[in-house]
Recover the amino acids of this structure.
C-alpha cells in the first residue's frame, strides 16, 4: 500500500513539473497536430489503398499520427528523459534513497502514458472536427488493446535504447536515428504505394513500428468488419515488448556513465 | 571507544588495471564529523560511493550502521543521507516541494521547517529550484540529504566551486548538523575546510590513507614550528641548524624547539651583521603537513 502511495506521489510531482514548463508542454501537445495538419495538406486529398480497401488520406492519417504519438511519447520522450536524468544524477539520487526504483519508474511511465492518451484524444477529436474522420465505435476495444500493447512495447524499447546510449549528448542522435527511418518505411508519414520496393516492406516488418501502424489502421478503419483485432501484429509487438523488458532489466543503469 | 557507525577493513577497488583504493581501514564513531582529505583522484569519492552503496567493491569488509552497503537494503537507506557532488533535482519544483517529495520516501522524516532552517533556505522555500544560486542549490542538496532525519550523512565535496562567503555559510550549516548529533563523513580537497569542521581527518593519497588524526594531532605529530627568513647571498647560517631553501627562495627551518633555535639564529645574524628579511615564526599548518604527505603528486586518475 505504502509503495503504491509513493508511486502515485511521484506521478503527482512529475505532472506538476511538466505543467510548470509551458513551452515544453505546449509543443509536446502541438507536435502530433502539426504533423496531422501538414500531412493532410500535402496528401489528404489522395486516395489510399490500405489492406484491400481504398480510403481517403484524411482517414489514413488519424491512425498514422496515433502511431507517431505512441512512438514519440513512449520511445522518444521516455528514453531521452531517462538518459538526461541518469547523466544529471537524478536517478543516482533516487537510488540512494529508500524510494523503490519501480515506484519512480511508475511515475515516469504513467505520466508518459497519460500524456499520450491526452494527445490521442486531441488527435482523434481534431480529425473528427476538421477532417470528418469517424471516431471508432465497435472497434474501440481493439484500438485500446492495440494502444496498450504498443505502449508497453515502446516503453520497454525506450528504456532499452536509453541503456545503450552512452551519454546525454548522444541521446538525440541515437534515439532519432533509430526511430525516424522506421517511421518513414512503416507507412506512418508516407502512405503505402504500389511503387515501394518489396524489400522495404520486408525489412520494416521485422521492426515493431509497422506492426503498430497496421494494427491501428485496421482498428480505426471505418470499413473494418468485426472487432478489428490484428492478433499477428499484436503478437509481434508484444514479443518486442518482452524482449525490451528483459534487455532493460539486464542492462539498464541508474548511475551516470563515466 | 564509542559505537562505530562506519567500519572499513582492507577496502579495495580496482578499475581495470588501476587500483583506485588500495586496502584502507576506517573507523568512524557516532556523532563524529570525519573528513576524508586528499587531492583530486586520490580515491575519496570512490571510497565514499562504496560506503553509500553506489559502487561495488573489489575487496575488503565494509559495515555501515551494521549493514553491508553493497546489498542495497532499504533499511540502511532509511537511516543515511547522501549529498552527492552532482545536484540532479527537478528544476521546476519549488524548494519546499523538493524537500517534501524526499521526506515522503522516509518513515521518520525531519519536519520541513526544521530542515529549511538548518540549511538556511526559509526565505527561498517557494522559489523554483532552477532559480536558486549555486550555493543555494548546494544547500538544497544538503536539505534533501537531511530529509529522512538520517543518523549518518555523507557529504561529498560540499563546497567545491563556492566563493569564500558561500563557503563560510556552508561551514556554519555543517556545524549546525553537529548540534543535531549527526555523524558526518565529509570529503574535501580543501585543508581549511577539514581543519574548520572535522573532529578527525584522514589524508588519502593514491588510494591509501597516509595519516589519520585530529587536525591538531596531525600538525603536532610533525615538528612544532617553522621559521622562515631571507638572508643575503653568501651568508651561511650557523652549523647545527637544519636550514633548507624553499621553492620560493626563502630559507626555512623546521624545529621542535623554536625558542632555542630562534635564539641561535638571531644571535648568529647579529654577530655577523646579517639582516634576516621577512623573518617569520609560525606553527606548522595543516597545509605544510598535507603537502609533505602528498609530495608533489598531482595525479588525475579515475574517480
Amino acid at each position: 500500500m505504502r509503495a503504491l502511495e509513493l508511486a502515485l506521489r511521484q506521478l503527482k510531482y512529475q505532472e506538476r513539473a511538466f505543467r510548470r514548463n509551458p513551452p515544453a508542454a505546449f509543443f509536446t501537445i502541438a507536435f502530433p497536430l502539426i504533423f496531422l495538419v501538414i500531412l493532410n495538406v500535402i496528401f489528404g486529398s489522395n486516395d489510399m489503398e490500405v489492406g484491400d480497401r481504398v480510403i481517403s488520406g484524411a482517414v489514413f492519417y488519424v491512425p498514422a499520427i496515433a502511431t507517431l504519438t505512441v512512438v514519440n511519447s513512449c520511445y522518444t520522450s521516455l528514453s531521452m528523459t531517462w538518459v538526461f536524468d541518469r547523466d544529471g544524477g537524478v536517478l543516482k539520487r533516487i537510488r540512494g534513497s529508500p524510494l523503490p526504483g519501480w515506484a519512480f519508474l511508475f511515475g515516469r511511465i504513467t505520466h508518459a502514458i497519460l500524456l499520450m492518451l491526452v494527445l490521442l484524444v486531441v488527435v482523434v477529436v481534431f480529425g473528427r472536427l476538421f477532417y470528418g474522420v469517424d471516431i471508432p465505435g465497435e472497434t474501440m476495444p481493439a484500438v485500446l488493446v492495440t494502444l496498450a500493447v504498443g505502449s508497453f512495447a515502446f516503453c520497454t524499447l525506450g528504456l532499452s535504447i536509453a541503456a545503450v546510449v552512452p551519454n546525454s549528448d548522444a541521446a538525440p542522435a541515437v534515439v532519432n536515428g533509430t526511430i525516424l527511418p522506421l517511421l518513414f518505411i512503416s507507412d506512418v508519414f508516407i502512405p503505402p504505394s504500389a511503387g515501394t520496393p518489396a524489400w522495404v516492406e520486408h525489412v520494416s516488418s521485422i521492426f515493431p513500428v509497422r506492426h503498430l501502424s497496421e494494427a491501428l489502421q485496421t482498428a480505426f478503419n471505418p470499413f473494418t468488419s468485426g472487432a478489428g483485432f490484428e492478433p499477428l501484429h499484436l503478437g509481434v509487438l508484444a514479443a518486442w515488448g518482452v524482449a525490451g523488458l528483459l534487455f532493460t532489466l539486464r542492462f539498464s543503469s541508474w548511475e551516470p556513465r563515466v | 571507544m564509542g559505537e562505530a557507525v562506519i567500519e572499513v577493513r582492507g577496502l579495495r577497488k580496482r578499475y581495470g588495471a588501476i587500483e583506485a583504493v588500495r586496502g584502507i581501514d576506517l573507523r568512524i564513531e557516532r556523532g563524529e564529523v570525519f573528513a576524508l582529505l586528499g587531492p583530486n583522484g586520490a580515491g575519496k569519492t570512490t571510497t565514499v560511493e562504496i560506503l553509500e552503496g553506489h559502487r561495488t567493491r573489489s575487496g575488503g569488509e565494509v559495515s555501515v550502521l551494521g549493514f553491508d552497503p553493497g546489498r542495497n537494503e532499504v533499511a540502511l537507506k532509511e537511516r543515511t543521507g547522501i549529498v552527492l557532488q552532482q545536484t540532479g533535482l527537478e528544476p521546476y519544483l519549488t524548494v519546499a516541494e523538493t524537500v517534501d517529495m524526499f521526506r515522503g520516501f522516509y518513515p521518520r522524516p525531519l519536519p520541513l521547517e526544521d530542515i529549511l532552517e538548518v540549511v538556511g533556505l526559509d526565505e527561498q522555500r517557494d522559489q523554483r529550484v532552477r532559480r536558486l544560486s549555486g550555493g543555494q542549490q548546494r544547500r538544497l542538496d544538503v536539505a534533501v540529504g537531511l530529509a529522512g532525519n538520517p543518523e549518518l550523512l555523507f557529504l561529498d565535496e560540499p563546497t567545491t566551486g563556492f566563493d569564500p562567503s558561500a563557503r563560510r555559510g556552508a561551514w556554519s550549516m555543517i556545524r549546525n548538523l553537529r548540534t543535531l548529533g549527526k555523524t558526518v563523513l565529509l570529503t574535501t580537497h580543501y585543508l581549511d575546510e577539514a581543519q574548520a569542521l572535522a573532529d578527525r581527518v584522514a589524508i588519502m593519497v593514491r588510494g591509501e590513507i597516509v595519516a589519520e588524526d585530529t587536525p591538531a594531532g596531525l600538525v603536532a605529530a610533525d615538528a612544532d614550528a617553522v621559521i622562515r627568513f631571507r638572508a643575503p647571498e653568501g651568508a651561511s647560517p650557523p652549523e647545527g641548524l637544519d636550514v633548507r631553501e624553499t621553492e620560493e627562495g626563502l630559507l626555512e627551518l623546521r624545529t621542535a624547539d623554536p625558542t632555542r633555535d630562534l635564539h641561535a639564529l638571531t644571535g648568529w645574524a647579529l654577530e655577523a651583521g646579517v639582516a634576516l628579511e621577512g623573518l617569520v615564526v609560525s606553527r606548522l599548518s595543516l597545509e605544510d603537513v598535507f603537502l609533505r604527505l602528498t609530495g608533489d603528486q598531482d595525479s588525475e586518475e579515475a574517480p
About this structure: The first helix of chain A runs from residue 2 to 19. Chain A touches chain B through 24 residues (CB under 8 Å).
